[in-house]
Amino acid sequence: METIQALMTRRSIRSWTNEPVTQEERKIILEAAMNAPSAADARPWQFVAIDDPETISKFTDMGGTEMLAESTFMVLVCAEIAKEIYPGFWPQDCSCAAQNMQLAAHDVGLGCVWIAVYPLEERVEKCRAVLGIPGNITPFAILAMGVPNEVVAPEYRFDETRVHLNKW
């Protein structure tokens, strides 16, 4: 898949079959995450891969996350803030990694949805409790994925009124 095609056709998928995500697909997705840009190349991210259905089910009660029960593979993107070189840039760095994961999942034919964790303290604490995340690591986002069980049509979202040339 070409880059522009991937960017323009990727949509959030919230329904999956029970077919597992292969080890090869998992590796591609995590390689893409770790190849994301980061401030001063600090790469302050850590990842928790989750494929145990019982563990996945523990995240279905966070409000609007019921569909996670269908996911066969999730990745919790976390920040190890101590790795930052320029303090305060970890959310951008982790966002880049998460976006790369979404695009890689789309490219290999998987559906993916981003579930916000940080800065919602109750979600941060839920991740810590369920997955044993240490205090020096900040849970940032859950990327839930699997073989799509739905088709969501691409949307053209360009809005020229939001582009300002040389000044507001």
Overview of this protein structure:
With 168 residues, this protein is of the alpha+beta class. The protein has one domain (21-149): NADH Oxidase. The chain is built from 5 helices and 4 strands, in the order ααβαβαβαβ. Helix 2 (23-34) packs antiparallel against helix 4. The longest helix has 18 residues, at 90-107. The N and C termini lie far apart (36 Å). The model has no long low-confidence stretch (mean pLDDT 98).
Can you give keywords for this protein?
4 strands, four-stranded antiparallel β-sheet, single chain, alpha+beta, NADH Oxidase, 168 residues, globular, 5 helices
Chain-wise SSE layout:
Layout: H1 3-9, H2 23-34, E1 45-50, H3 53-57, E2 73-79, H4 90-107, E3 111-116, H5 121-131, E4 138-146
Antiparallel strand pairs: 1-2, 2-4, 3-4
Helix pairs in contact: 2-4
* Radius of gyration, taken over Cα atoms and rounded to an integer in Å: 16 Å
**How many helical elements?**
5
Largest sheet: 4 strands, antiparallel
Oligomer: single chain
Secondary-structure element series: HHEHEHEHE
Arrangement of strands in the largest sheet: 1-2-4-3
Give me the count of strands: 4
The tally of structural domains comes to 1
